[in-house]
Write the structure tokens for this entry.
Amino acid sequence: MKFNHKLNILFIAIIGISLSCNKTSNSPTPITPVVPQKQVNIIVLMGDGMGIPQITASWHEHDFLNLQRFPYSGLTLTHTVDKIVTESGAGATALFTGVKTKYGYQGMGPQGQNLESLYDYVKSEKYSTGIVTTSFLADATLAALYRHGNDRYQFEDIALDFYHNFADFTIAGGQDHFDNRSDQINLIDSLKSKGVNVFYGNQAIANAQHLPAIGFMDPLRPPYLTEGRSDFLKTGSLKALELFNDKSFFLLVEGALVDLAGHDESIENQVSETLEFDEVAGLMLDYAKQNDNTLVVVVSDHESGALTILQGDGMNYIPNYAIDEHSGGMVPVFAYGPGAENFTGLMDNSDVYYKIKQIIDQNLSK
């Protein structure tokens, strides 16, 4: 019996060693965290309304997305303090201030207190700032950066807030909120008086040579790609990187119309808008790989349309929208660059702010 007992112990030991070896051999190659050599640039890519179903549907168009090139990923919860299903103002406020707030608020806490956004913070640290979006400039997502309000539909007031806190480089729609206003104030003339280079249309982006600059691409919200919108999301993002040159910067790039397409229950437009956004994400990732002091974070404020992917014939799918509104599902986050290893697992959307701010603070003295 003693002999058998020793054999059993030996057998267990051999099995343990074997399992340990197999576990090691099957482990993925460790990812070496990026260590910046100087102050960190921040690129935030916002896929407005882009949830996991939209990414899944878009992946099946090409069997590949640039998003899968990002080495770190996680999930974020999106609820507000008073509703389980958020909207863009409250969602962006949580992402950019670290505070969950009430439905419809931008840059304002649930008790009505004004909040400092990442945009405000990096400005105080002498960063260059940029906003590139396929929406209009006074839309709710962007307003969370530069205003404090509780009504996302006060577009002329939001435009005035931007005038008082404008970015160094901006590409957006929404010209009418600046020069076709009910109060007869021409904010474009006011911006020009502050030395801002104002231009119009995608073709003019290439000619922008100095900061500050703002390019208006449409009187209000630009159309879908399928309706003829130009590729100004890409050209504007690349121009921002060119003009920022060697100065530390914060750049927000928003693929805004994934959200609108969810409201319209249009899978064609959700996919085409997501694929354009993914292309820009790939370009920003390529930039970061050439500039090791750049953190790229891909986020979403919420999912739009409550899309599900149902089985069709063979490898075809049937898109099914539950509602022409947002849903409360978790949304993904992807990251590359200094501190990117922190963007894994399940987190609150408000956690994203602290993770980004931490890496900024760690490298401000470099």
Q: What stands out?
A: Residues 67-362 form a domain with the Alkaline Phosphatase, subunit A fold (CATH 3.40.720.10). Residues 1-27 have pLDDT under 50 and may be disordered. The CA atoms of residues 263 and 324 lie 4 Å apart. The two ends are 68 Å apart (CA to CA).
